[in-house]
């Protein structure tokens, strides 16, 4: 069955088609959820909530643009909505933080380790870091999505980079001590 036919069947609330669509995209969308979640369990919750929204709003998809892109936008917005409702962005009076470059020599760090240290960032820093660095949104877009100002987005990104840099440096030190 083609993707277009699958989408049409989902629009008719065909549960078999919904199951097929879930199987087709769940792993890709789960990876996206992991980026915006504190842990595996929260990512699973976000994925389930995203698919509920997808199935409820699939009528709104008119075939213009990438279907996968549409799914990803819903998934990211679902994860962000959790944080908007928790008011993780209430602290906006942060001192301007100098922007820091994080030097990651890819061969030295596993994807699991990098994902772990990103997931350990405080929510407001992790969300801005992921949106800006991993997904390529502008600070203006991030500010609109998270309902914060542009300066807060920039400050949160700089602070996230500082924390990641410190964690990576600490990891390098612990690795070199263990190898002695």
TrEMBL record:
UniProt keyword terms in alphabetical order: Sigma factor, Transcription, Transcription regulation
Domain of life: Bacteria
RNA polymerase sigma factor 70 region 4 type domain boundaries: 112-162
Gene3D superfamilies for this protein: 1.10.1740.10, Winged helix-like DNA-binding domain superfamily/Winged helix DNA-binding domain
UniProt-listed Pfam families: Sigma70_r2, Sigma70_r4_2
Domain RNA polymerase sigma-70 region stretches: 21-87
SUPFAM superfamilies attached to this UniProt entry: Sigma2 domain of RNA polymerase sigma factors (SSF88946), Sigma3 and sigma4 domains of RNA polymerase sigma factors (SSF88659)
An annotated GO BP: DNA-templated transcription initiation
Recorded GO MF terms: DNA binding; sigma factor activity
Family: Belongs to the sigma-70 factor family. ECF subfamily.
Protein known as: RNA polymerase sigma factor
Organism of derivation: Seonamhaeicola algicola
Lineage: Bacteria, Pseudomonadati, Bacteroidota, Flavobacteriia, Flavobacteriales
């Amino acid at each position: 069955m083609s993707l277009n036919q699958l989408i049409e069947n989902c629009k008719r609330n065909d549960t078999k088609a919904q199951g097929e669509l879930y199987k087709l995209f769940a792993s890709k969308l789960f990876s996206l959820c992991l980026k915006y979640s504190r842990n595996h369990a929260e990512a699973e919750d976000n994925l389930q909530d995203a698919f509920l929204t997808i199935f409820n709003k699939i009528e709104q998809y008119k075939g213009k643009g990438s279907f996968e892109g549409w799914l990803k936008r819903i998934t990211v917005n679902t994860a962000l909505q959790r944080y908007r409702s928790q008011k993780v962005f209430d602290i906006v009076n942060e001192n301007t933080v100098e922007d820091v470059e994080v030097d990651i020599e890819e061969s030295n760090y596993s994807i699991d380790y990098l994902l772990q240290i990103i997931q350990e960032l405080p929510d407001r820093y992790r969300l801005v870091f992921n949106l800006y660095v991993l997904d390529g949104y502008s600070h203006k877009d991030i500010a609109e999505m998270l309902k914060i100002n542009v300066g807060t987005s920039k400050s949160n990104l700089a602070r996230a980079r500082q924390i990641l840099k410190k964690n990576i440096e600490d990891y390098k030190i612990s690795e070199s001590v263990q190898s002695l």
